[in-house]
Amino acid sequence: MEEEARPIPLSALQHALFCPRQCALIHVEQQWAENRYTAEGRLLHERADQLGHQRRRGVHTSMALPLASEKLGLSGIADVVEFDESQSALVVRPIEYKRGRPKAHRADEVQLCAQALCLEEMLDTHIDSGALFYGKTRRRKEVVFDDTLRMLTHRIIEQTRAIFDEQQTPPAVYDAKKCDHCSLVDICQPQVFSKQRSASHWLTRQLDALDE
Questions:
Q1: CB 3.0 to 4.6 Å from 127: which of 16, 56, 85, 116, for a disulfide?
Q2: Of 170, 151, 139, 138, whose CA–CA distance to 106 is shortest?
Q3: Looking at residue 195, what DSSP letter applies?
């Protein structure tokens, strides 16, 4: 029998959109290192997970809720899921806790949308929106799960699955805005490997020119 593919962790989608090499280092090579930013994020998640369950004004709040999608091959844990029973129909909202501030890219939104896709399959319902809670601003940012975000999320799921299936770590590409704050920078060594790749490409072009 063909071996069943292991589920993709929901966090891997955020890693894959932010940096495919980071995704492979963490989830394929099982590499990890912590810095101030990852420590702050971990503590923020731990505080959310410790809250357990709450019910207030018709809203049941569940923390550290296990999620899975058999159709998409996903699994993970939602920081917070709100079940709002105060309206005529049940409203489900996933809430993801993040350190820092809202970002220019959509990696956090993709991770949250993937949580919603899991909940939709598990509960046989439709989820319109969720929220990202950022530690720096101490505010929620509403995220609408429109067609554009859903299509992007499905594309990132496919790309992440390819990384898992191929078991290959993409080459390093140095980007100061991303790399200098990444906890894996000493393991990845993007500046070193990017220069080596550039030198190798230059040498190949020189050899090709001599053969012409």
A1: 116
A2: 151
A3: H
- Max CA distance (Å), the chain: 77
Cβ contact 74:16 at 8 Å = no
Distance CA 179, CA 198 (A): 18
Place of tokens 């896709």: 117
Amino acid at residue number 17: L
Q: Kind and range of the H or E element at 112?
A: helix 107-123
Please report, for residues 33, 42, 52, 195, the alpha-carbon distance to residue 49 in angstroms, rounded to integers and kept in the order given.
Answer: 22, 10, 6, 42
Q: What is the pLDDT of residue 49?
A: 58
Question: Which tens digits make up the pLDDT trace of 121-134?
Answer: 999 999 999 999 99
Write out pLDDT tens, residues 12-48.
999 999 999 999 999 999 887 766 666 555 665 556 5
Kindly indicate the confidence band of residue 110, based on its pLDDT and cuts at 50, 70 and 90: very high
Q: Backbone phi, then psi, for 154, in 5-degree steps? A: -65, -35
pLDDT for the residue numbered 45 = 59
Other CB atoms within a 10 A radius of the CB of residue 133 amount to 17
Return the ∠ at Cα 200 (arms to 196 and 206), rounded to 5°.
Answer: 145
Query: Residue type at 55?
Result: R
